[in-house]
């Protein structure tokens, strides 16, 4: 969806432009580069961020309601060829990136802070892990966030998901050399973070469940789907995340059919069983 949106305005973007991405999940930049800016010489600069503000969609695609104060963490995106903190210190950010960073951090309602690319990556991965549990489980079972904590079967699935997620994150090449990664992204700590967030938002409806109910495309490909893809790159099997991803995709498709009143296709070609 993000790639499609950027494609519509790609003629307005130059190598001097900076695009800020604020969304759940990961892997969007790789998709944008592949589909919209395949030539590195013509790509804009990228920034990413995560927010904890409360937001609610309006019918108009370009407006949202600000329902709760939170924080915003932003950072320029480090080029793939640069991985270390030393590389970060040597890079000179584009003028448009500096301008956007300064403007956002000086806007009080956003409560925005700028971080280094490596620090933001760790925050993104923590949020990814939490979203990979709460969002799909609530979407599949059509329940509030807090309900996943008090069901034995939920907790069993949660643990299997977290073992795979932890294994993939700890093996990511971009994190190698950073101290404390195994502890920070251990299944136990990730489970504690999920529990804290689910308790804090116990009566909330996850964004993925809201999308499924309204027949919209979810972000599952950039959440559990991202874990599966990175696992494949690293030779780590993520069977539980793969299953959860496809269950959400199936429910998403079913909801779209119900919303649109689609007529089922006879995949058997009229044959009798």
UniProtKB/TrEMBL annotation:
Keyword NADP: yes
Keyword entries, A-Z: NADP, Oxidoreductase
Organism lineage: Eukaryota, Fungi, Dikarya, Ascomycota, Pezizomycotina
Role: Catalyzes the NADPH-dependent reduction of ketopantoate into pantoic acid.
Organism: Aspergillus clavatus (strain ATCC 1007 / CBS 513.65 / DSM 816 / NCTC 3887 / NRRL 1 / QM 1276 / 107)
Residue stretches making up the Ketopantoate reductase C-terminal domain: 121-252
Stated family: Belongs to the ketopantoate reductase family.
Matching InterPro entries: 6-PGluconate_DH-like_C_sf, 6PGD_dom2, ApbA, Ketopantoate_reductase, KPA_reductase, KPR_N, NAD(P)-bd_dom_sf
Protein name as it appears in the record: 2-dehydropantoate 2-reductase
Domain of life: Eukaryota
Keyword match Glycosyltransferase: no
Catalytic activity: (R)-pantoate + NADP(+) = 2-dehydropantoate + NADPH + H(+)
């Amino acid at each position: 969806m993000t790639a499609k949106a950027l494609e519509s305005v790609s003629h307005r973007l130059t190598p001097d432009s900076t695009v800020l991405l604020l969304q759940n999940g990961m892997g969007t930049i790789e998709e944008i580069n592949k589909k919209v800016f395949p030539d590195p010489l013509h790509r804009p600069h990228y920034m990413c961020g995560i927010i904890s503000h409360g937001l609610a969609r309006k019918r108009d695609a370009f407006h949202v309601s600000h329902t709760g104060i939170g924080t915003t963490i932003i950072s320029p995106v480090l080029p793939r060829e640069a991985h270390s903190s030393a590389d970060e210190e040597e890079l000179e950010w584009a003028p448009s990136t500096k301008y956007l960073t300064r403007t956002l951090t000086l806007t009080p309602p956003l409560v925005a802070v700028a971080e280094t690319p490596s620090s933001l990556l760790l925050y993104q991965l923590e949020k990814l892990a939490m979203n990979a549990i709460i969002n799909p489980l609530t979407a599949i079972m059509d329940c509030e966030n807090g309900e996943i904590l008090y069901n034995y079967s939920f907790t069993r699935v949660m643990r299997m998901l977290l073992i795979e997620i932890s294994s993939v994150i700890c093996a990511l090449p971009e994190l190698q050399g950073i101290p404390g990664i195994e502890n920070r992204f251990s299944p136990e700590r990730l489970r504690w973070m999920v529990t804290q967030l689910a308790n804090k938002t116990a009566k909330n409806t996850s964004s993925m469940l809201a999308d499924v109910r309204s027949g919209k495309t979810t972000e599952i490909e950039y959440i559990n789907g991202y874990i599966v893809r990175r696992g494949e790159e690293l030779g780590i099997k993520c069977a539980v995340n793969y299953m959860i991803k496809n269950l959400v995709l199936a429910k998403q498709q079913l909801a779209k059919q119900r919303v649109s009143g689609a007529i089922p296709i006879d995949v058997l070609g009229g044959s009798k069983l």
